[in-house]
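Re: that chain you flagged

S.,

Sorry for the slow reply, it's been a week of failed gels. I finally had a moment to sit down with the sequence you sent. For the record, here it is as I used it:
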Amino acid sequence: MPELTYVGHSQPKEDAIAKAVGDTVFGDDLHLPGELIGKVIRAGRIPARINKIDVSKALALPGVHCVLTAEDIPGENAGRYPYYPVLSAETVHFTGDAVALVAAETREVAEAAARLVKIDYEPLPGLYEFRNLEGETLCDWKTEKGDIEAGFRKADIVVENVYFAASVDHGFIETEGGVGWVDEHGIVNIRVPTQMIENYQGVAKVLGLPANRVRYDCPMLGGAFGGKEHPLLGAYLGLLAVKTGRPVRIAYSREESMAQCSKKHPFVMRYKTGATKDGRLSAVEVDIIADAGAYPTNSKGLVLGALCVSGGPYEIPNAGGRARAVLTNNPFTESMRGVGANQVCFAYESQMDEVAKQLRMDPLAFRRRNFINKNQTLMQNQPVSSRVMLPELTHKIEESITRKAGSASGVSPGPWRRGVGYAANIAGYGRPRNEGEAYMSIEGDGSVNLRCGACDLGSAQTHTNRQIAAEAVGVPLKRVTVTMSDSHVTPMVGITAGSRQTMISGGATLSSGQELRSRLLRGAAELLEAAPEDLGIREGNIYVRGAEERSVDIARAAAQCKAMDLALHATGKVQLGDHDFEGHEKYGDPGGWMDYVFGLHAAEAEVNTETGEIRLLNYWASHDIGQAIHPQHVEGQFEGGAMMGIGHGLTEEIQTDRGRIVSNEYHSYLIPTAAETPDWESVFTESGEGLGPYGAKGIGEPPCTAAAAAVACAVSQAIGARITRIPITPDHVLEVLGKLGRN
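Prediction finished late last night. Pasting the structure tokens below so you have them in one place:
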């Protein structure tokens, strides 16, 4: 690959100072003259039938402009999914179900009006336990590879365990909030933090309007992680703005946000792992049960995706798997950073430790012996299409751990015991038929405009595309302006989720930039009397290779292009194909990702064997990222993702009481703080074999998938007993030590 000028380098982000000083305008920061305050009224009890809604007293309250129920929706009463209502009309299934909307002059009046809306509920029987499969089973996926029975017959040792991973919240720092208004052209404008501006299409259906009469303008997000995919907030704002004729603002409190937002699926995972005495895996059998909560949403695809990576980054000659999702009246579960890979990584890495222990092998050496290689197959018989650099990453992590003083398991002072745990992992990015476009144009002065529909979740989607544009065309970074996520201006690229946007929007940006570069070279070739293939571009200057004194700037080349009737704008497109491995048809579209990211994490922890307290001391994260677009952003993903996984492993758990969330604010739902952050080291390799621009891989989610597993393995190693649930509470530590309940 030729030397890159911008890609692979960590330039300062254009909005870095604004974010640092608090000047970034997020969803709830734009205020409009004459705006009203909206309030969402949610289910008073669940599950229940709605017999009657009386809004008369609320409407009579001075300052109230409207109270809307399902019968006031002019179009379709459906959110992202047809079975998920914008406003519940007949029944409510979980506490986040919306029943009515209020618009008033002030927040205080809106909240008072909400209390005056009287809803007559008739209680219905509910289901809250998913492990016993009492609720409706949404899917029953099965995978088979080799001969599972023969594989276990060949095994010299067999390890069986049941693992539990709790439900967790997305925990984004910015709660949902935004504003909707109808402009002078009759366009309904929705400005909300969202992960996909394509939601404008669904809101138009709710409002009974043509799609071109609704505009989504997505601001910078303060995090999302899968929790801001739905169009419901936009639909509420649109309904109220159209009804009142005034701008309307809605901003959720933390409690409201947690009540209505989706959660990560809790999993129960039964694993049976067989290995031969020479340290080779011979068979793995997996059974996953997930709680889908109150609505199916995307649980079918998510648990299938989890099943596809449930064998881990290992070559398993014989494997069998099953994955089911069950409907309950708990909060609905959906995509969250890692989409099922986190839970199964905790289970399969715990199994790797237990098998190594029985074989009396070093746990890292056992993993190394079984790492999968390129072209070998996963649980669903899908070949791994790109290089697997786990041996190189393992070597780097081993060296780092050796350098760090004190990073050894054993006895610490008093009741404290220290352990080091490892977690190798596999995570996917890119689904079949993913696609997107980007539009790029060159001004007469040689500056570049890029339009891209990707929503920026705070993880540098804007800057990444800016770097790629500058690299592709050959102009200085400061000469590139990017317009993001405006449904009336930018081409569509789909959801910012699944670690896909560098590949999709970045790939489309690269495509459009390369096309414009080609045209500029043709124009410059006329001016320089040279062949286009003999020219290069650097920092906005087009030169003859080997005779760089012969050159023109891009502005002159652009003028020549116009004279030659060569367009100075181009639309680039990325469109992935279907799976092509044998038997993929039985899994449907999400039967595995198009490519995979591999990594190795390590954690050093101290555990108090008398109290169950855990201290995380050191952490190492490593992945093959294909190509770093911005190395500093990569480090940020490593650290932020792994800390999210550490929270899943140690402190975070959505606790419910008959479907109601009882850990609904940050005093009871515990996110790790700076005080819990360990000393850190990040390592990455660049195979150059990713599907993204310049060989990049999607890296937003993979660091999150391994962290809980690494911490659980470290704690287990420290106490000499296997942790089987996350988060690892002190009670669970004492339970596995046989000390719970002792005086």
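What I noticed first: The radius of gyration is 27 Å.

Talk soon,
D.
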